[in-house]
Amino acid sequence: MNLRTKSVEQSIADTDEPDTRLRRDLGTWDLIVFGVAVVVGAGIFTVAASTAGDRAGPSVSLAFVLAAVACGLAALCYAEFASTVPVAGSAYTFSYATFGEFIAWIIGWDLVLEFAVGSAVVSKAWSEYLATLFGQLGVQVPTAVPLGR
User: Fold this and answer.
1) Distance between CA 118 and CA 42 in Å, rounded?
2) Residue ranges per domain, the chain?
């Protein structure tokens, strides 16, 4: 197990190369794509709220308030990390600089898993929306695929 860390100075030096710098500009197309991503991401909360509302009742409001508090605290953590390690990156970069290479490797794979699960949930929500739209147009779309016999 390798527990070496990367210093802040080394992280900055690695990103100061002209070929690896990120551009600091957003155009109209970028903002449109971000807007669509927010709408798609909001579909996760719509599906979760309708499902939870059917099963959990009024405690859904409390759950969303607790989730908002947790998201706010996570945002503050990311802001602190970004001010400590001022380079482009994510949880992987921050954990490499603070906890070491092995923990950063685990967090990197956790991020891959998180993005895979998130995209699966968005795909499920979009397929439900699309099936509802087709149903309103009179086209019946199967919502389940039989496996096996």
Assistant:
1) 12
2) 8-14+26-136
